[in-house]
Design goal:
- The chain has 467 residues and is mainly α.
- 74% of the residues lie in helices and 0% in strands.
- It is built from 21 helices and no strands.
- It has helices spanning 2-7, 16-25, 30-43, 47-71, 78-85, 88-120, 126-142, 145-174, 187-190, 201-213, 218-223, 230-239, 241-259, 265-268, 271-278, 284-316, 334-353, 358-366, 369-391, 405-420, 428-466.
- Helix 6 crosses helix 7.
- The longest helix is centred in the last third of the chain and has 39 residues, at 428-466.
- 48% of the residues are buried.
Length: 467
């Protein structure tokens, strides 16, 4: 039994620099480059406050996850912690929901990549290009975890370099040291209705939209389990969450708010590209398209890695078929990876066969999973922290601030954000379908998996009594 478990173990091939760059680049996606313009149009300069509040929520959740991950680095991450803290049904539920969410995200990214390739090279059909990218990313994932880490390192590096270049240029434009550009000063903040042009409600509504788009930081906690020094890498990744969100999201949005009036709707459709264009850079739109293309590749690459590890972890806990925990000679959960690739292709085909019905249905079903994941993390942390403090407090090398008060407050905020979807027209369908999917997954556990796991659980209890 021990030999079999050892043969099915993942390899620790990720280096510290891989984890560091994965954690830094994890929050930089296409949503930042495109979605920020919509938020600014809605909330005006107060969009800065929206990003601060949303970022704070994510920081608190990642702090909780980091505390648990340092104690127990695991490829199943929050699914494993929910299993231990809340019950097997909880680990089963959030594990499968998270896997499904990544499948839909990757199908969306694949079609966006296919669209971009078709726009650049019209001779290549969009469907063919869309189906090609999951296969390309499979190659980077199938060889070794180190190959995935190296590829993701350079993709993330390119994303970080682009956003840093934007931040440097933006600051230079604000201080009026870019030739040919006159700094607007703070006129775009104090004019056109001031900091709160439409009141405080758009700030809160924007927080809801932003929070749903800020997932990605948790990938570092999953990947750290396959690194040379999981404990050290998790601590570094979690500690860097605060400055990453402040610098990349709040910093870049602040620059956009200062440089682009909220009434300039045309400029806000592609705000980052237009800032480069305003500074006199030629081919600014093409440059940002390349950056967005790299971001989509990065998300697809990380998605394949993360979804395969979640399936592997579910299989290890007997919440998925045993074959999904089999690894090849290089320590890759090959069947879990290929299963994810298969379903990506299925969902991508739905995008072309039934884009307005079936695919929209699937996308809305997964839309609320991020918030559900955060809630499971917070509740798991609340229970595990108390257990650890009673049994072995010395292992708590990363601690959640002001425990348990901030944990309780975060849970209430997360519940509020999730329920708020029901009262926002554009998010009502997402709320209903995500809630329904969650209930169906929970029901599936009690109907099909709980009975299968009872014998083994009883056997383990008997063994413990004998010992």
């Amino acid at each position: 039994m021990n030999l079999e478990n050892k043969q099915n173990e993942l390899q620790k091939g990720l280096k510290t620099r891989h984890i560091a760059m994965i954690s830094i680049g994890g929050v930089i996606g296409g949503g930042l480059y495109v979605g920020s313009g919509t938020i600014i149009s809605s909330a005006g300069p107060s969009a800065i406050l929206s990003y601060i509040l949303a970022g704070l929520i994510v920081v608190l959740v990642m702090r909780m996850l980091g505390e648990m991950a340092v104690v127990n680095p695991d490829s199943g991450s929050f699914s494993t912690y929910a299993h231990k803290a809340i019950g097997p049904w909880a680990g089963f539920t959030i594990g499968w929901l998270y896997w499904f969410n990544w499948i839909i995200i990757m199908a969306i990214e694949a079609t966006l990549l296919g669209t971009m390739v078709h726009d650049w090279f019209p001779v290549i059909p969009m469907s063919i290009a869309s189906l090609a990218f999951p296969l390309i990313m499979t190659v980077t994932n199938i060889y070794s975890v180190k190959t995935y880490g190296e590829f993701e390192y350079w993709l993330a590096f390119a994303k970080v370099a682009a956003i840093v270049a934007f931040l440097c240029l933006g600051v230079a434009m604000i201080f009026g040291i870019v030739p040919g550009f006159k700094s607007p000063g703070i006129s775009n903040i104090v004019e056109n209705g001031g900091f709160f042009p439409k009141g405080f409600l758009p700030v809160l509504l924007s927080v809801i939209f932003i929070t749903f788009s800020l997932s990605g930081s948790e990938v570092a906690a999953i990947a750290a389990g396959e690194s040379e020094n999981p404990e050290q890498n998790i601590i570094k990744a979690i500690n860097s969450v605060v400055w990453r969100l402040l610098l990349f999201f709040v910093g870049s949005v602040t620059i956009l708010v200062i440089l682009i009036p909220r009434t300039a709707e045309d400029l806000l459709k592609a705000p980052y590209a237009n800032v480069f264009d305003m500074a006199g850079f030629p081919a600014a739109a093409e440059f940002m398209n390349i950056v967005i293309f790299i971001s989509l590749l990065s998300i697809l690459n990380s998605g394949l890695y993360t979804s395969s590890r979640m399936l592997y972890s579910l299989s290890q806990k007997k919440d998925a078929p045993n074959v999904l925990s089999k690894v090849n000679k290089r320590g890759i959960p090959i069947w879990a990876l290929m299963t994810s690739v298969f379903f990506i292709y299925v969902c991508t085909m739905f995008k072309f066969v039934s884009p307005d019905k079936l695919f929209v249905f699937l996308a809305n079903s997964s839309g609320g999973v991020t918030m559900i994941m955060y809630m499971f993390i917070a509740v798991s942390h609340l229970r595990l922290r108390r257990k650890i403090e009673n049994e072995s407090p010395e292992v708590l090398k990363v601690k959640m601030w002001l425990f348990p008060y901030l944990t309780y407050a975060t849970i209430l905020i997360l519940i509020g954000i999730f329920v708020a979807q029901a009262f926002i027209d554009d998010m009502q369908l997402q709320f209903l379908l995500s809630s329904l999917l969650t209930l169906l997954v929970i029901a599936a556990y009690f109907l099909f998996y709980r009975k299968k796991k009872v014998p083994s659980t009883e056997k383990e209890n008997k063994l413990e009594r004998v010992q």
